[in-house]
Specification:
Elements (H helix, E strand, L loop, with lengths): L2 H9 L6 H7 L5 H11 L8 H14 L4 H4 E4 L2 H7 L10 H17 L2 E4 H15 L2 E3 L6 E3 L7 E10 L2 E10 L4 E7 L5 H7 L2 H12 L4 E7 L6 E5 L2 H22 L16
Parallel strand pairs: 1-2, 7-8
Antiparallel strand pairs: 3-4, 5-6, 6-7, 8-9
Helix pairs in contact: 2-3, 2-11, 4-8, 10-11
């Protein structure tokens, strides 16, 4: 049976995204493929402070005019100040959650993502730094503004095929002859290792393949002062590694589709840490 047809029948989705493929890339084990299954069925946790901040940062960076419609800024300064002497992490306390529950309910009704005032302030300051940052293109010797790598069509949707594999994604920026993905990170220096660790190279392969574009950049910014920026260009070997991982993931998914788990809801993860 056709791969796409089986994928639709088993998971209810007729395409694969980078977010799904990253779980299956090295997932020959049952536990890795279980994460893939949970993701495809929409059962993995979708909201976390890190994910919310990433969404906020991308929005303010690429589509700032949409921020008011997408985000609810939680004014929790007074609550945190009141609790900080009593709790090491006030925002993790039961009292904090009770005091902010109403605001969270309101945001949910409006379909907005909740972010703190601190996160909003940090994201705004990060972008101010990025907009004033220059970078030396070591290939051409030209000095450019980092913002130059973010000029183009923002959040460009793709829904296409790589061979017989249906893929979907959103390019942060589709520029004139290049593709850019923005990332906020804990460490600028460590990002080159993150590309392999978090399978960002799969994303680079998918997008360059679908768009028939050879040039893929990551614009990276550190989430701590002074909010340093960097531009990384995906090399041929990086994209080739993404291609290898992509097809390895497809093999794992194809094998899993032949024998999917019967009941995802009762599955629990076991790890030794």
């Amino acid at each position: 049976m056709d791969f796409a047809v089986r994928l639709q029948e088993v998971t209810g989705k007729g395409y694969l995204s980078y977010s799904a493929l990253k779980y299956a890339a090295d997932g020959s084990g049952d536990q890795d493929m279980k994460l893939f299954e949970l993701y495809m069925r929409g059962l993995l946790r979708k909201n976390s402070p890190a994910l919310s901040f990433g969404k906020l940062y991308d929005c303010l960076l690429l589509e700032p005019e949409k921020a008011d419609d997408l985000f609810y800024v939680l004014d929790d300064t007074d609550i945190v100040n009141e609790l900080k002497d009593k709790y090491k992490n006030p925002k993790a306390s039961k009292v904090y959650k009770e005091r902010t529950a109403h605001a969270l309910e309101e945001a949910e009704k409006l379909g907005k993502t909740v972010v703190s005032e601190d996160d909003m302030s940090m994201a705004e300051n990060m972008i101010l730094r990025l907009d004033s940052s220059e970078v030396l293109d070591t290939e051409t010797g030209e000095i450019k503004m980092v913002r130059d790598y973010l000029k183009g069509d923002a959040q460009h949707e793709i829904l296409d095929w790589i061979g017989e594999i249906p893929v979907r994604g959103f390019l942060d920026v589709l520029g004139d002859g290049f593709i850019t993905d923005s990332k906020s990170t804990r460490s600028i220096a460590g990002f080159k290792y993150d590309v392999n660790k978090f399978n960002y190279d799969i994303q680079a392969y998918i997008y360059t393949q679908v768009m028939d574009c050879d040039t893929f950049y990551w614009v990276v910014q550190q989430k701590s002062k002074p909010y340093l920026c960097a531009v990384y260009k995906a090399s041929e070997s990086t994209i080739a590694n993404g291609e290898r991982k992509f097809w390895s993931a497809i093999e794992n998914i194809d094998r899993w589709l032949s024998n999917p788990a019967k009941d995802t809801n009762t599955f629990a993860l076991f790890n030794v840490i």
